[in-house]
Amino acid sequence: MVIITCFFNDETYGLLGPQMAATIIQDHTPYDCIVIAVTREYDKAAFRNALADYFGTARPLIGFSALSGREDLFALAKELRDEGAVTILAGPQADVDFAGEEGWRDHPHRFKGLSDHFTFGLHGPAEQVIRLLNRPDGNDWSQIPGLLYSDRDGNLIQNPANDWSKKFLGKVSWDNIYLTAKDGTAPLIIETGQVLQHIGCPHAARTTPAEIDYPVSITGRQGQRIKLPLKGCSFCDVAVDKGFHRKLDQKTVISQIRCLPETRDGRKIPFELINENPLPTLPDLMREVHLLGIELSQINLTLRADGLITGLQHLKEALLMAGDSGVYVLLSSIGFESFDDTILLNLNKGLSVKKNIAAIRLIRQLKEEFPHQLGYSIREGANHGLIHPTAWDTKESAAEIQKNIYLYGLQNDILPPHSTPLIIHHASGLGHWIREIERREGLWFKRDGSIIGWWEEPQQTKKS
Description:
alpha/beta, Rossmann fold, 2 domains, 9-stranded mixed sheet, 5-stranded parallel sheet, 22 strands, 32% helix
């Protein structure tokens, strides 16, 4: 079996989700399984030849995960399925991308889903695929948790997914990934791994009421808002997909750390700790790892500005330990997202510009106190969240953001080389926002695959 996933050119990071799924398949089914990371620049013909060589005379069994909306990979999956391969769409948002956007049958412009591109969809924990792989050509899939498929009458069936089980979350092979190359594929040497500690995001743990402004592109409607119940940030489809399940126990986390490759000096390679609120448990984790004789090199943290403020003392404690054990802590990504309060409100970040700036001041102070243990700036490898353009950009918001950038010197250490445009996945909170606007105003926004093109002028719905 092969799991195909998207990847950026000239990068050396691992992919925990697909690689852990491949490990589970390798250990619990009769199939060998590898991951192939496909860049946008890949040679399709050479890649197809590599797949043919890998499968030989066996029927191709190919999973797709973390595709990031890439329509070229959607098209590849359909080609492979039409040629007789069994194709499985898994990973984040697999269920909603397989089934299609809400109301697409009544609104032809909406994303109709990928059920004709893939044989199956699989939503939830990767180990659910074990039962499917034991009978991919069977006639009764009704008892396979998390599975999506079409029955003989063309009706979409979606089985309830299982909960996450730590039994399958403690092991990952990091040598099972290959990168597309000129001659097909080549082993990917991983320099940065990932360790899962939180499943989902605490900000998405509960539903909160929100009010989102109309987009600037709809003239004459400024000041009007859409009321929505949201889980987490309005743009985050992962929050909708996973919500917040729980924290993994220390034993399972350390088991993952043991699996990481080592550098030449015997330390574990740098890794991202997947936990949106990592500071409260970081000192205990570092202490336990040290007692077990596991030597770390670098821990990369992704967190929110408010999490840094409330977790400051925990971070200081961890940095003191880092100095004693030679570990480097990189605040690799802080989700500031904007330095305008109106945009932050529409993103449902639960943050203000004041709080973002307070966090930045604290980080800069910490850097002076722990210059050799802490990194946070763009020149030290960090890439903080900045969403621009958005659907609510105005001359006033642009002036406010520029004022804050220069007032606090954000261009010197905080701003990433490139901002990230607002991306509205059809199943995110903002997907519901767009559909409500379409309903109210008799408009429709263009869809680019699973993404809603908010940046284009909306069109008037034709009257029947």
